[in-house]
Model the fold of this input.
Amino acid sequence: MLRLCQAIPTTGSPRRLFASCRANRAGRGGATARTGLAPGASVLDVGCGRGLLARQLRAAGFAVRGVDASPAMIGLARDYEPDARFDVVSLPTGLRPGDKGALPESDAVVSTGHVLNYLHTRAQIAQALSELARAVRPGGLLAIDLMTEAFCDRRDLGQIHAKVREDWVIVTRFSRPEPYRFDREITVFRREGEGTWRRSDEYHRNVTFDTDEALRVLRDNGLDGHLRASFGAEELPGGLAVLVAARTEGSRQ
Done:
């Protein structure tokens, strides 16, 4: 699965993230007295990439399972954090909880780097989000980020953007080939020696998704969700939204 970045909450630990999610929920009338996930709680990292967030979660005392559509990324993750479990999974799976190959039920489900926006259609995003929601156990939490249409509302859409440093150059071109699409062509040049540069090219194809629709999907699957500006204290770029949600104790979709 192509990913623009691995958006790790650098200001604050994963444990504090889960605690703040529960505190926000409690302020909205939640019926749980707990302030965070217990040590050893299971966390599902969706779109885990090479395992950077999984390592932070393991260090915070959680039992981590990561899934990603890229076998190469899963191989890197297994080497980087051998104490977590990693599997190749493509979303949406089309499976229900408990089916072989379905997302495992977990105490928390997290996804960073607007992973769901790399799916091909809005219908696939909605289905995948439903599967993430159904994987949350009673009393559990979900925290994800999404790219919305507001991220694409920019006056410089037709311009070429370049950032130049002594040892690297990055050139980015944006396009909107159809409604709800936002594509980025990224070319990176890295200095490898005297007079030698290495070029690499990436193409990021994203499908935007509305937060109102995302909250409806979560609600239809038994989760009470709301929007946040960020995972921690570090705000995301405008148009990237964080959704956190909780399943009440005893409820099951």
In short: The chain has five helices and eleven strands.
